[in-house]
Structures are given as structure tokens and as C-alpha cells.
Amino acid sequence: MPQAIKLVRCGPAGAEVPGVELADGTRLDVSGFTRDFDEAFFGGSGLTTLRHWVDERGNKFTKIDPGARLGAPIARPSKSVCIGLNYRDHAAESGMPVPAEPVIFFKSSTAVAGPNDEVVIPKGASKLDWEVELAVVIGKKASYVDVSQAHAHIAGYVLHNDYSERAFQLERGGQWVKGKSADTFAPMGPWLVAPEDVGDVHRLKMWLTVNGTKVQDGTTANMIFGVAELVSYVSGFMTLLPGDVISTGTPAGVGLGMKPEPRYLKPGDVVELGIEKLGTARQVVRTFGS
Per-residue b/e over 149-188, b at no fewer than 16 CB within 10 Å? Predict the structure, then answer.
């Protein structure tokens, strides 16, 4: 049986090399197999074939420098669909009712960043907030997919921090996408992990700290709408292409919901987060132009 591998992309922003990380932490350059982890790769059963290719080649690989920058483990997706208020405790802290159907909004693909890249406060922003989330990567074109068939359309899962500029999101005349889409607002990774290597995706611990203080401490078991239901639901409104992302919501503990008053990120703040089996990430906050 082929060994478990995690997809990584390493190197300078915009010039990342596709790679795999083995169980011992070694990272191998797989650019000889695929140009990138993009729509063509995922749509062609790339992950399954890549496992066998790695096993067959044995030691015939160029190793990636372990100190190389990690990019997002997927190339820029055609779209990133986010689900709002998908944890009961988060809906409660937001002062909103539990939704009867999934709340959908978009995040610009240009927001995608590496897991340890800096997060940049955009011009005119004042209320930068955090959200640790499980993101689903589509592996097979999905349109009007039944819930029972949804898992066949999933390539894997990644850790995602759904950064939000709350003033842009809530105080600028509508459409949440305004507060979700600035550059660096979608750091993903460190890895993409295949479903069979994750196990029960609805029993994963998730957490986030700001300057070492834990502010989010949850589990994917508290989702209102599960992964298969979300893939099915979203595919009823739009075609999902291989490499597309669905980010499945966040538990309680965001800055907007803090009492007695909201807490937002400032330059120099350090945000660290993780999801069981999906790794950890770290972002330092800076202002635009600094």
C-alpha cells in the first residue's frame, strides 16, 4: 500500500515548487510529476497517482530544503467558498440565530497566502479578526452532487485562517466579501492531507492563540452542517472545479465576540493556529506598506 503523503508547495511567493512531505518530515520535489497542485492535477486523480509514483521512484528525488518557505499547498483556486455561522457557539457569540441553511460568501483567490506568511492590515482597516477553519479541497468536478456521493469529490483538507476586516465586512454597505478578500487574508497549510489520512473529519480538535493566549478551542464535531452536506449544498448553486476550496466555518472565540468589548489585531501581534492532523501555522501582523 502506498505510503501516506502530504502535499506541500515550497519556495518564494509566486514561484513555489510542488512537493510531498513524508512521515519523517522529509520534503521531496515532485515537479517531475506535476507542474503544480492545480485544477489539472486534482481533476486527473493526481493525488492517488502521485502516491504510487513516489513509491516507485524510491530515492530518486531532489529533497527540498527544510528551511524553504511554505506556500499554500494548493495553487490559486478558481474560487474559495466560505460558510458563515457554521458552529452553534460562534453563531451565539455573534448574536445571530443558527442558520436554517448554510450561509455562503466568497473570499477572493488573491487572498491566498502561505501558512506562515505575514498577514497585512489593509489600507483604512481598523478591525482585523481571526477564524481558524477546516477547508475542503475539491478533487472532482461537482455539480448537483448528492450528499451520499459528496466524499467522492473531495481531494483533501487543509488548515485555513479566515481573516476578516470587520469594519469592511459589516459597516461598508453589505456583502461580507469586502471584509474577507484582502491580500494575505487566506493563509492555508502547511499541508493538504488526503481524506483517508485524516480519518473522521468531524472529530478534529482545532485551536487558535493570539500572542500565546488561547482564544479559540473547539472541535469540528460542533459543525451545524457537515462536510458532505456542504459540498452537496454548494454544488447546487455553482459548479465546483478541482482545486476549489470550501472553508467550513469557525468555532467561538473570534475577536468580534469578545466581552465586554471586541478585540482586534494590531501590528506585531502573533497568531498561531492548528487543527489535529492538519498541522499548525503562524502569522505575524503588520500594516500595509510597513
Answer: ebeebbbbbbbbbbbbbbbbbeeeeeebebbbbbebbbbb
Q: Which three cell numbers stand for residue 206?
A: 482545532
Number of H helices and E strands in the chain, helices first, is 6, 19
What are the pLDDT digits (tens) for 201-255?
Answer: 999 999 999 999 999 999 999 999 999 999 999 999 999 999 999 999 999 999 9
CATH of 76-287, one of 3.60.10.10, 3.30.870.10, 3.30.70.3270, 3.90.850.10: 3.90.850.10
Spacing of C-alpha 233 from chain mean position: 19
Reported as type and span, the H/E element at residue 9 is strand 6-10
Mean pLDDT, the chain, integer: 94
In the predicted model, residues of the chain with pLDDT beneath 50 are: none
Q: For the sheet containing 270-275, what is the strand order?
A: 119-121, 279-287, 270-275, 205-210, 213-219
pLDDT of residue 96: 78
Per domain, the residue ranges of the chain are: 6-70, 76-287
Beta bridge partners of 280: 274
CA angle centred on 188, ends 184 and 190, rounded to 5° = 130
Rounded to 5°, angle at Cα 91 from 90 and 93: 65
Contact 19, 27 (CB under 8 A): yes
Contact 186, 111 (CB under 8 A): yes
How many whole angstroms separate alpha carbon 127 and alpha carbon 255?
9
Residue 272 CB partners (closer than 8 Å, separation 6+): 208, 209, 212, 280, 281, 282, 283
Give the predicted TM-score (pTM) of the model. 0.96
d(CA 43, CA 196) in angstroms, rounded, equals: 18
User: H-helix or E-strand containing 137?
Assistant: strand 132-138
